[in-house]
Structure formats: structure tokens, C-alpha cells
Amino acid sequence: MTAPTAARRSPRVALLASGVGSTVRALADAVVAGRCDVHFVGLVTDRPEAPVVALADELGIEVVALPLKKGGDRAAWDRAVADALDRLDCDVFVLAGFMRILGPAVVERFGGRMLNVHPSLLPAFPGKDAPAQALAAGVTLSGCTVHRVDSGVDSGPILGQVAVPIVEGDDAARLHARIQAAERVLYPRVVHAFAHGQLGAESAALTLDSGVPALLATVSMRT
Questions:
Q1: Closest CA to 222 of 186, 172, 171, 173
Q2: Other residues' Cβ atoms within 10 Å of the Cβ of residue 106
Q3: Do 15 and 24 touch, CB atoms closer than 8 A?
Q4: Is 177 helix (H, G, I), strand (E, B) or coil?
Q5: Mind telling me the catalytic residues?
Q6: Per-residue pLDDT tens digits for 136-175
Q7: CB neighbours (10 Å) of residue 125?
Q8: Which of 11, 37, 46, 167 supports an S-S bond with 195, CB 3.0-4.6 Å?
Q9: Does domain 12-222 have CATH number 3.40.50.170?
């Protein structure tokens, strides 16, 4: 008689978010739909009043609120964030609309396991207001990128991208909305693949059976 096989544990994921929670909702929906096999352990936020906190409560996710007051000790805050993430004991750390730049205390400890999504085809247009940057540059193609976090600004190794065409009449808000629709498709796939070891630590591109080119075509047709 063969001994029963132990149930496989879903990778543990901590979220970091500051806003309304649309990225958290997209990830949670993907988990429910079976497209992203992870377990959300906790949410770290710098804004206790943010709508994402209520969403986390709705989803049964522990919330760790670490506000940074104006003029506060930034290094001490970074250490508090690092300690909170350490206590959550997670496999992967996912930035989901987190509006603070993380310092060395966090990046040096967790950057190899920390993911972010950015609304451009990196390395083009890093930093703030990427859709507006793309429009100002006159390019015809933008999109979103999931990358590992490092000490630079949106400069970590790229794990997946989806292109979004810029169309006549676009302004920054319209373009950003279509990019966010692409993010909701791409980000859960990359989180799942990374958490399950389907992407190497130095991997340069997401490769799944469906593949990023298929995602690119699907998202472009739907947006």
C-alpha cells in the first residue's frame, strides 16, 4: 500500500500596496479562477486609510500598516518594512501599487524575490507618469513590464511584457487604462510562474505554454 502524498503547499506571497487595490483584486481573482496558485499571507501598506486595506480585510489578508510621516526617519521606516516582510515569512513579495521607493534595508534582503509591474515597455520610460512619457516621445507602442526589484528605478531583470498600441486620440489616462487591462492579464501569470520556479532568478523573459506573444495578441484585440 502506497503512503498518501502530502498536499503541495501553495507559495506564500506578501503584497505591498498603497492605493485603491485594483492590482490586488486582479491577483485575487486570478487565484480564485485557478490561474495563479499562491496564498496571500499579508498586505504591507504605508497608507492605513487606503481602500486596499478594506479590500484586504474582505479577502481575509492580514494588514500591516506602516505609515511614513512627513519628515520621519526614512531609514527606520525601511527597516520596519523589512522586519514586517521577514515576519510574514513569504516566498515572493509583490508590489501592487506601492507608492514608496524601497530602500536598501528592503531591497538587499528581498529584492531577489520581489516583483513589480510598470506601465511601459522597459527599459523605455521608467519612473513616474510612464504613459505620459510615451505620448510625449511620440512612440506608437507602449505596454507593461513585470520585473524583479533591484536598487534602481524600474531597472531590475525583466520577467514578462505585453505591448499595448498607442492609438489616435489617446491621452495619458486612456492609454494608462488600456495598459492596466494588460497588467491584469500579465501580472498573475508572472507571479504564478515565478513563485513556482518556472522562471530562473536571472530569466530574461516569461515563457509559458500560452506565451507572451499570445497574450500580446489577446490583450491588443480586447483593448
A1: 186
A2: 26
A3: yes
A4: helix
A5: 118
A6: 999 999 999 999 999 989 999 999 999 999 999 999 999 9
A7: 23
A8: 11
A9: yes
